[in-house]
Amino acid sequence: MRNLRLFVSAVAFFLCCIKPTIAAEYRLYAAAGIKIPLIALSQTYQRESGHSIVNDFDTAGAAEKKFLADPNASFLITTKPRIDKAIASSLLTNGQAIHLVDTAAGIASSQAVKPVVRNGADLKAALLSAKKIAFSDPARGATVGLHFVKVIRELGIEQEVMAKAMVARDGIETMRLIQSKTVDIGITQMSEVVQADRTTLVGPFPKEFELVSQYVLWYKTTGDAGVDGFVKLLTSSRAAGIFAQEGLLPVTSR
User: Fold this and answer.
1) Quick one: a GO biological-process term for this protein (predicted)?
2) Strand 73-79 and strand 212-220: pairing?
3) Residue 16 covered by a domain
4) Do residues 60 and 108 lie in contact, with contact meaning Cβ atoms separated by under 8 Å?
5) What is the model's pLDDT at position 21?
6) Which of 122, 126, 195, 242 would give a disulfide with 115, using CB separation of 3.0 to 4.6 Å?
């Protein structure tokens, strides 16, 4: 009995000395084109680690601005040119950049009979015949929105398109306008089309106007095991499969 009491006392002392793992919260700002897979991966990470990821999705430019304004943020996912520029200007320091996935600019349609867009002439005809067109706000740093304005200028139809255009806050709103049939054509990342309603996808821009963006993950290398664990998940083969299912293009090499 004495030995049992000693054993119980020893176990109680040992348990009192163990420090419980404290669940941490990490903030992530990302371009909306990667929203659905990131939500799924964040939920997986929370189940497996106990730590939580607080996601904020916006245009590529707005996501970058929000991250830079938040000293407690850990992760940023936006386009490679923005990451490169921020690193070169020392806005991003003490961290690491990883090429995560790629995404292509695409076209969505709410019409029962979708336009066939094989070349610039097809794209021009589709845009001119549409009654309403939505695209993400270039002023808010929307990558595809900025590209689309250049395209319609090259096609010589900027005035006609802008007269019937609805400038959306981001790609998510663009797809809401498509799903509600408020507009005939929506211009955004193909991944955003697939994640919202893949049945509305017309396809990518024709070859001469193709836009493929590299989404880059930047994170603070502070030696935090929680941060490192989430990065490991994001760059795993399991994550690659989830990204591919949601319309994102795999990275062949890092």
Assistant:
1) molybdate ion transport
2) antiparallel
3) no
4) no
5) 53
6) 126
Question: In degrees to the nearest 10, what's the CA dihedral of 123, 129, 132, 135?
Answer: 10
Helix boundaries (H) for 70-222:
80-88, 120-129, 143-155, 158-163, 171-179, 190-197
Q: CA–CA separation, 194 vs 137, rounded Å? A: 20
Q: Report which residue type is found at 25.
A: E
* Site of tokens 């509600």: 180
- 122 in a domain, yes or no? yes
What are the backbone dihedrals phi and psi of residue 119, each rounded to the nearest 5 degrees, phi first?
-155, -175
Q: What is the Cα–Cα distance from 33 to 171, expressed in whole angstroms? A: 7
Helix (H, G, I), strand (E, B) or coil at 1: coil
What is the C-alpha R_g of the chain? 23
Tokens of 148: 């689309």
Under a CB-based contact definition with an 8 Å cutoff, are residues 98 and 254 in contact? yes
* 86 and 156 within one domain: no
Taking 80 as the threshold, does the pLDDT of residue 18 lie above it? no
Kindly state whether residues 138 and 128 are assigned to the same domain: yes
**Residue 38 carries which side chain, given as an amino acid letter?**
L
Interior angle at CA 111, CA 171 and CA 183, nearest 5: 45
**How many CB atoms are closer than 10 A to CB 1?**
5
**Per residue in 160-194, pLDDT tens?**
999 999 999 999 999 999 999 999 999 999 999 99
